[in-house]
Amino acid sequence: MAKVIQPTYITKQPSTGKSIKFRPFTVKEEKSLLLALQENDVDTTSESIKNIISVCTDGQIDPLITPYYDMEYIFLQIRSKSVGDVIDLVGSCECGPDKKTEFSVDIADVRIEPAPTGNATLKIPDTAYTIEFRHPSIDDFTKIFHSVDDHSQVVVTNCIVKVFTDDEVMNWSFDEKLEFVESMSTKQQQGGAEFLKNMPMSILPMKYTCRHCGKDHSQTMSGFESFFV
User: Fold this and answer.
1) Residue 23: left (phi > 0), alpha (psi -120 to 50), or beta?
2) What distance, in Å, lies between the first and last C-alpha atoms of the chain?
3) Measured distance CA(151)–CA(225) in Å, rounded
4) 195 Cβ partners below 8 Å, 6+ apart?
5) Are 196 and 135 in contact, with CB atoms under 8 Å apart?
């Protein structure tokens, strides 16, 4: 049976500047994603998004370690070539609960804020240890969504690339890394916490003027569900 040959496009991965080839997603893949979004289940949605990005980039993007903001950005590029560059939205206004204004945003206006800096290498105060951190992946964000306070250290541990001193690199298991993180003081964890807290995000600016009262509105949107309106 004959199949449509999809066009290939190129974008830049924000965190690395690497060129990534991708194709649009198919109608079948779009339906799968829409069904996942309708279930309103973060795990189902996450798995569907990871699968689409992986197949549309022919495995160039590994969803397990790729930063969340890279996934957002690349998903937007795939969405723009699959559905269209424009996202149609409806804005509200303080002039009345039923006062709505239709407007559009252009995916070409997406920006990454703050600018990606790659992994962070942080010296742990009052110790001989240095930790290399990566930014959270989409799986890490899923864990954050499900986590209670006690599990936040698990997410931090997942983002550790390596622990080392001037003389050696620690060949630690996940449990050993977790024990190390949990043994730190608040001061010692501060650098890593700030790095993760200030992670870049894909942001689309939204501007519209209320058609009822003329008030100008300026906001931003981010997040996979927002991008697939």
Assistant:
1) beta
2) 33
3) 25
4) 120, 122, 133, 135
5) yes
Contact in structure between 46 and 142 (CB atoms under 8 Å): yes
Residue by residue, pLDDT tens for the chain (229 residues) are 556 678 999 999 999 999 999 999 999 988 988 888 888 778 888 899 899 999 999 999 988 889 999 999 999 999 999 989 998 999 999 999 999 999 999 999 999 999 888 899 999 999 999 999 999 999 887 877 666 555 678 888 989 999 999 999 999 999 999 999 999 999 999 998 889 888 899 899 999 999 999 999 998 887 665 655 5
**Residue ranges per structural domain of the chain:** 9-87, 88-113+204-226, 120-197
Give the pTM.
Answer: 0.83
Strands 130-133 and 120-123: antiparallel
The tokens describing 217, both together, are 């509105």
Q: State the Cα angle at 115 between 70 and 48, rounded to 5°.
A: 15
The CA dihedral of 50, 56, 60, 64, to the nearest 10 degrees, is 0
- Please name the residue that has the structure tokens 């697939």: 228
CA atoms within 13 A on the CB side of 223: 10
Separation of alpha carbons 212 and 101, rounded Å: 8
Dihedral sign of CA atoms 141, 111, 215, 102 in order: negative
